[in-house]
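Protocol step 4 of 6: structure prediction from sequence.
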Amino acid sequence: MIKRIIYIVSALIFLCTGEINAQRETYNWIFGDKAGLTWNTTRDFTGIYVYGGTGSVTLNGMPTNITSPLTATQGCFTLSDRKGKLLLFSNGSKLYNANKVIMNPTTDMVGNIDNAQSGILFPYPDNPDKYVAVTTGRWSNDFLGYTIIDMKGNSGLGNIESMNNSFPAGRKGKVGSSITSTRHANGVDYWVIAPGKGTPSYINIWRFTPDGIAPPQSFQLPANVEENKANGYFKISPDGKHFVWGTFSDSKLFFGNFDNATGTFSNIRHITSSAGGNEFYGVEFSMSGKYMYVSKTASGLVSEFLLYVFDFDALINSSNPQNYYQTQMKRISFPSTSGMPAALQLGPDGRMYISGYPYFSSPASFYVIENPEQYNNLKIYRLDNFLTGSPYFGLPSFAASWFELKIGGETEFCLDNVEREYTLVISKGVGSEQLAYTQWNFGDGSTLIKDYNVTDGNIQSYMHAYNTAGNYTITVTSHKANGEEITAMGRQTLNIKVLDVPSFTVTANDVCIGESGTMTVNITGNDFTINWYNSMASITPIGTGKTCSTGMLNAEGTVTFYVEVVNTLGCSSGRVAVNVTVKSCGNNFIPVNPHIRITH
């Protein structure tokens, strides 16, 4: 078993009311045209390969639909409580409570649905009964305000305490279209971030504390962003160390370092579209922050639907980021018969979801990246009829760092004895101070593994092969130094289904020179696809079914054929060699072509 640090899905473990519960603030999504998803209940769903394979596959643990009254062409945001109960959602102008009732029927917040990000929700620092909704106006109209919601009102559904409050003066450039938030390193305060466009252009940041909002800091960008154009998403990496902003209509992508203790942006770099406008819209980091995903929306070429994947360390450390963008990043093409990939958003299950905008004749679609940490083995699926509503451009925005622990790895495959990677990241929240090691049990009787690599942020990753078909459960438990299990931290599990491959024998008798023989697959039942080939590389079968003729064999020796058996699960035996012995039987007669004239 080989240990590697590659594929990560994050964990957050928090102490709530005397119990340790995983945070579930992102468990409900409200977006698009009356579309909604929840991870409080999950389902199996069939995904159609867009990249990384062919055909379809069953995806486990996918979110289920919830009803929604919301319509948002782009900007929208949602928040749930730590137990996953829906609290609030909005399109930037109207705010809805958990009963899906508008809380501000007469006066709108300053957000706008034509923004990629119309606003963001986060808890009021050090006040468990209040929340803050920060909203920003359309494109570059320079509107920015915050609304305070008191959840004690209206029988726990919340009342708006004040709306469209002003931020302290001092920001630079014109804000609008893009906004985000992330938790301060102290675990209490929140940073609010909004780029300001113009000549020059800036990133503005405010610190929201229990005592109010501090005056902004502003950091000049290395290139200007034109006013009065639509922009894309602004995201902070889950570890709070980096940022990315896609300017969409202005054709630039900014990225760099961020310090969530000081609110400082540094090493700000950028690339410029080589394909013209509308290049960079949806942006998202993988949970580890190692990879960055960016959607390329249409720019005149309807058929050119692309997803860009960057090795972020390579990009930010490159001496020439523009060259990296043009020659080294991964470009993944999406079919023009599906929706145009637009917004990108990490889910609480570690997958990355993509809205597919119905561009011209293409239908609305929804996509999922099953394994966003596996750069060299990405699997992307289209989810047909996944939503009861319809996606548009946008997906809900969340403050960074609200995602919970899941074991990552492939969950259903045919028995092939191939090692697959399963991974976990350690993110030590309140109450986990006694964690000394995790224990991995792959559920097949193999040796238990104790991993002491539990420093906050470290990654555990193992390769494992199953050698017998069946259902297994990978279980990761948390332990103190004395071996006692920390049951309050919960067991992390992943269900594995290893599908059986066909089991059979082949009968092939010896053949006399000048004769043909019959090869037979001996297998119980008829629910199999059986193809015979005359070589390992042949594309066209020489026969199908349980029996196959060798054809006339005219030379003494051994002739090798191949047979492949596929069961109803889609599992293949692979091509199995079948050796036929051709021998002289005494008076062998090899037919002569009667049309050949022999003269002496």
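Step 5 (inspection) to follow. Confidence is low (pLDDT under 50) at residues 1-22, 594-600.
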